[in-house]
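Lecture notes, unit on protein representations.

Consider one protein chain, 363 amino acids long.
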Amino acid sequence: MAISRQHRHSSWGPAALRRSVTVVLILIAAGIVHSQPRKEVRDGWQLASPSEQGLDIELLNELVNKLKSQEKAIRSVVIVRNGKLALEYYRDGLGRSTLHDMRSATLSVVSTLVGVALQKGMIKSVDQPVADFLPEALGEGVDSRVSAMTLRHILTLTAGFDPDVKQVGRWAFPVDFALRRPLVSDPGRKFDFNPGTAHLAARVVVSATGESVSQFAEKQLFRPLRIERYLWRIDRPGGSELGYSGLQLTTRDMAKLGQLYLQHGSWNGTTVVPAQYVEAATRKQSSGGPPMHWAYGFSWWIAPVSRLPAPFMAGADDGQRIYVNPGLSLVVVVASDPRQGRSTSQSQVDLVINDIVLRVLRR
């Protein structure tokens, strides 16, 4: 049974949610993209027609029809251009209030919380030893190299832990267990997309802030971005939020995270995450590797391109993606049905993003 912490702000009660679904520009029923302005919803987004933001209406219609008839793993697509929400697609029965499991894109949210904690002085540096926050790193049975492991090694997934050691039960990664895993390389030398390592970043946030991950996120990240509904899976009853998966947001709110990074950590003129951290998080910190085979920053994948600034994205091969292209002032969020399988979801998500960037967007 799924165990989650949930939050629903009073202004988003069930009746309000039903009302909001009826006013969204909706491309779903007829598969047609309309260019007239839509009614605003008080969630922080400014709306614009697709054509105003350089999106080809005819090609968008083709894309939507393909989503309905062929790419059936896709649950929702949101396109933001120049800071304005230009298009949103929802499969039948879903809407702007639907929460989507972000899966591994959760890592990028936890990384963002690290940046917030840095700004507030709760964390001194990404080069601070993990043992400063998690004394279990110095415990009995822990490889001596773990004592030199830093938060940077955790965020870049270069800690060196054995990837073949799995979690306890279906979800749990107790801190002492995660830190006692054998190392197969020295910290900083080898990338591995490892959920147990990613979970340690969330535990550092808890230790540094004195709050649960969701409490800190709600006050310092979700509230400034006007994210009012979410679920976050915890590892056991009374336990802690997962750092490697389990956060559920709407696609509109997922797009806010991408836009926050596109705006160098600023939202409505207020610094939420330090620009210096955003720059480092979205810059190549390691060569990366599977499953995306892109370079890796601080829990963001960095596109292997020569022209800078490079596109970057949250998510992996599990069908949930936040794609950010600074050169195009573009954010694309795609959420898919995890029941369709990783290969199907990933291939359809890739096709949608490529279609938007290479065909739909007029240069």
